[in-house]
Specification:
Layout lengths: L1 E6 L7 H13 L3 E6 L5 E3 L5 E3 L5 E4 L4 H9 L4 E2 L2 H8 L1 H8 L9 E3 L15 H9 L3 E5 L8 E4 L2 H11 L4 E5 L7 E8 L2 E9 L13 E4 L4 H14 L3 E9 L2 E8 L5 H7 L3 H14 L1
Parallel strand pairs: 1-2, 1-5, 5-6
Antiparallel strand pairs: 3-4, 7-10, 8-9, 8-10, 11-12, 11-14, 12-13, 14-15
Length: about 290
């Protein structure tokens, strides 16, 4: 069985994951090659057909290029994860909308209106008063697309909120209530084939973002019953093949932070001792057999 890992041209953050997957693939007698997405892997010809030279049984898709993923799926390839789930997780607002009305606790969330020019005027700030009235202060501002804590800000007052918005208004943004009880703390739960593999807690004494900067650390975490039920419900609703589900702590109640379709697992394996790479590949083999 032959697989292909597709990565972005800026692949430095995936090197450890690739190394581990290739190590475990060798033990399972799987051929696993790495291909960089340079924009030429697939295209649509003048007859409207997807053209690609790829020859493999499955694709581990570590890029966020939704368009290439859709073309490859259209050409008949099986991707892990599939394009729909990649898009769902990459777009944080889409994640919250999809899981709304299902009894999943999450921060109070509002999306920013889009502006189709490169400047703003005072009228464009007026909606922030409604945001503050609805959510309260302090509140969190997030770029809809982002990872590793980048593009996540804490606004303590209206002046800070206006400043953050003025610098980021050209990006899709969302606003959320600040979970004070989870300041600098979150849980990362790895899910494979709709089952919980394990969890660890991330903490940062110097920042409200648990996963940001050199001061962030992690330790194993035994999930309580409420957390397990919470994660299992999300995994079942979304039919998750592989993901990292991030939770915030609000006393005894779990709150959804976000879902990562291409969750890193180097630190997770070191902290928990769980072989994620082997289970990831095992899931792929079992899925293809079915």
């Amino acid at each position: 069985m032959r697989g292909v890992i597709i990565i972005n041209q800026d692949n430095s953050h995936n090197l450890s994951k690739i190394k581990r997957l290739k190590e475990e693939a060798a033990l399972l007698h799987l051929d696993l090659d790495v291909i960089v997405n340079d924009g030429t892997i697939a295209y649509i010809d003048k007859n409207g057909e997807v053209v690609t030279d790829l020859k493999c049984d499955f694709i581990i898709y570590l890029d966020k290029d939704y368009y290439l993923a859709r073309m490859l799926e259209q050409a008949g390839y099986t991707l892990f994860n599939d394009p729909k789930f990649l898009k769902l997780c990459d777009d944080k607002m889409l994640t919250y909308i999809t899981l709304s009305n299902h009894g999943i606790r999450m921060p109070l969330t509002m999306s920013a209106p889009l502006i189709y020019r490169d400047y703003i005027n005072e009228e464009n700030y007026l909606f922030l008063d409604k945001v503050i009235k609805t959510i309260g202060l302090p509140l969190v501002v997030k770029k809809v697309y982002g990872s590793l804590g980048e593009g996540v800000y804490l606004a303590n007052n209206k002046e800070e909120l206006k400043e953050i918005y003025s610098k980021n208004f050209m990006y899709p943004l969302l606003f959320q209530s600040y979970v004070e009880n989870s300041k600098g703390r979150s849980a990362r739960v790895i899910v494979i084939d709709e089952k919980i593999v394990g969890a660890f807690e991330r903490y940062n004494p110097k920042d409200f973002r648990s996963n940001y900067g050199g001061s962030a650390s992690s330790r194993p975490l035994a999930l309580n019953k409420k957390q397990e039920e919470f994660v299992n419900k999300i995994a079942s609703l979304l039919h998750i093949k592989y993901a990292g589900i991030d939770l915030l702590f609000d006393n005894d109640e779990p709150i959804l932070c976000e879902i990562n379709s291409n969750a890193f697992f180097e630190e997770f394996e070191k902290v928990t001792g769980i072989n994620v790479a082997k289970q990831y590949l095992g899931m792929i083999i079992n899925t293809l057999k079915k």
